[in-house]
Amino acid sequence: MLIVYPNNFLQGMHGTNSRVYQLVSAFKQLGYNIDQFGYENFSKDSSFVGFDKTNSNRLISNLYLYDFIKGYNNLNTSDTVIRFTDRVKRKLRRSDANSNTKYLQDWAPDGACRLFNEIIEKNIYDVVVVFYTYLANLLKNENIKAKKIYFMEDSMFLQQYSWDYKNNPSLTLGKLLDEELDRLKFFDEIFCISYDEKIMYEKFIGKEIHFLPHIQPESIQKANTPLETRKWDVMFLGFNNPFNVEGMNWFVKEVYPHLNPKLKLVFVGSATYELETTHSNIDIIPFAPDLDEIFDNTKVSICPMFRGTGMKIKVVESMAKGIPIVCNERGIDGFPDKMRCGCFVTQDPTEFAEYLNKLVTDQAFYKNAVSEINEYYGMLFNRSKYLKDLKDILC
User: Fold this and answer.
1) DSSP for 158-175?
2) Using one digit for the tens of pLDDT, what is the confidence trace for 42-84?
3) CB neighbours of 354 closer than 8 A, spacing ≥ 6?
4) For 13-47, how does the pLDDT look when each residue is reduced to its tens digit (9 = 90+)?
5) Helices (H), 216-348
6) Which strand (E) or helix (H) includes residue 80?
7) To pair with 331 at 20 to 30 A between CA atoms, which of 91, 278, 302, 342?
8) Average pLDDT over every residue of 253-277
C-alpha cells in the first residue's frame, strides 16, 4: 500500500494526524506493507526530520519525500527516508502548484507528479490511499493499476470556501464543488469520516460512500485518575487553525465570564499561540508530548467551534476516555445521531458555562453524562466492525 499524505502523521499534534495514524495502524493489522508519499517544507507544523526515530516500529516501510520548496531532481537516501530535492531555490506556493486548477487548491505540482509516477512504476502496489482531493491530480496517470482509495476527512470545497471567500470575490461554492467532484472520479472507492458528508456526497456523485468514523485501539484506557484528584476541571485542545482559534477566543470572551471562578482550566495545542486574553486559572500548554496524561487529569472536555467539516477527533478521543464533552453544534459534526450522542450541545455562551459548572459540581449529573458517553461510543466506534469493512473493500 502507498499512502499519500503530505504531513508527518507520526508527530501527532493535531486530529488529522491522529486519524491517519490509527488508519495506518489498522492497515498494518490487516497485513499491508505500507509506504508513504509525503512533502517536506510543506507546513510549518510538519517536518520529517528524525522520521526514522519516530518510525522505530516500522509502521512505514519506505517514505518518499518531495521537497515542496526546492522541487525535484537529485536523489538522497537515509534509511527508510528517500528525499527528492534539487538546486532550484524557487519557492512553490500551494495555490501556484498546478496551473490547470482554477479554484480548488492543487497540491500536485509537476515535480511531485513526476516523482509519484516513478514510485508507482518501480513498485507494485495493490492499493493507493489519498487523504485530500487537493492531492488527487497525482492520480491522473491512467497506467496506475492499484486500487485507488480516497479517505474524505473533510469537505475540501466547504473548507476552502471558508478560508478564501473574503479574499476572492469570484469564488463560489459551486465552482469549488464542481472541481472537487471531478477529482473524486479518480477513485475506485471512497471512505468518509462524517456521516453527514457521506449522505451529501452520495447525492452528488450517485455512488455508495463508505462511512468510517475515527477508530481508536481496542486497548484504549478510560481516564482512570480518581475524579476528585484530577488536576483540571475543563480542557480545550486544538492546533492552530482558524476554526479552533475562533472557537477558543469565543469561549474565553463569551463563556468564561459565566464560569465558576474556582474552576481550573487547561488549554492545550498550538492554537494557544493565538489566544487573545487569558486568566490566572487557565494553564497554557502549547505542545503536550503525552496527551494521555492530560486526558487522565481532565474532568470535562470542550469543543467550541462554529465552522469546519468532518468529525472532530478531539471529541472522539474524549469519548473514548469516558470524559463528558460540552460543545457547539459543529462539535458533533459527523455523528449519525445528534440527539443521543451524549454531548452537551449549545450555541449560547451562558448555557455553555452552566453545563460546565453543573458537570463539575453535581456528581450524579456527571456520572449520568459519563454513562451516556460510554454507551454511544461503544455503539458507534466498533473497531472490529470497521476493520472487517476495510478488509472487504480494500482486498
Assistant:
1) HHHHHHHTTT-TT--HHH
2) 887 788 988 999 899 899 999 999 988 877 543 333 444 555 4
3) 258
4) 678 889 999 999 999 999 999 999 999 988 877 88
5) 242-250, 291-296, 313-320
6) none
7) 278
8) 97
Residue 91 has pLDDT above 60, yes or no: no
- Region for residue 124 given its phi and psi (left: phi exceeds 0; alpha: psi -120 to 50; beta: otherwise): beta
Over residues 330-380, the pLDDT tens digits come to 999 999 998 889 999 999 999 999 999 999 999 999 999 999 999 999 999
CA distance 218 to 136: 32
Helix (H) or strand (E) holding 53: helix 51-54
SS3 32: coil
Q: What are phi and psi of 309, to 5 degrees?
A: -135, -175
CA 221, CA 100: separation in Å to the nearest integer? Answer: 48
User: Mean pLDDT, to the nearest integer, of 192-213?
Assistant: 96
The letter for the amino acid at 244 is N
Place of cell 487529569: 297
- Spatial distance between the Cα atoms of 269 and 255, rounded to a whole number of angstroms: 20
> Do 24 and 9 touch, CB atoms closer than 8 A?
yes
Alpha-carbon distance of 379 to 371, in angstroms, equals: 12
Report the alpha-carbon distance of residue 393 to residue 388 in Å, rounded: 9
Residue 225: alpha-carbon gap to chain centroid:
27
Contact 148, 188 (CB under 8 A): yes
In b/e form, how buried is each residue of 328-354, taking b as 16+ CB within 10 angstroms?
A: bebbbbbbeeeeebbbbbbeebeebbb
- At 1, is the secondary structure helix, strand, or coil? coil
Question: Which position has the grid cell 472537487?
Answer: 180
Ordered structural domains, the chain, with CATH: 2-212 (3.40.50.2000), 227-380 (3.40.50.2000)
147-173 average pLDDT score? 91
Alpha carbons 352 and 254: distance in angstroms, whole number: 10
Q: What Rg do the C-alpha atoms of the chain give, in angstroms?
A: 21
This prediction's pTM: 0.87
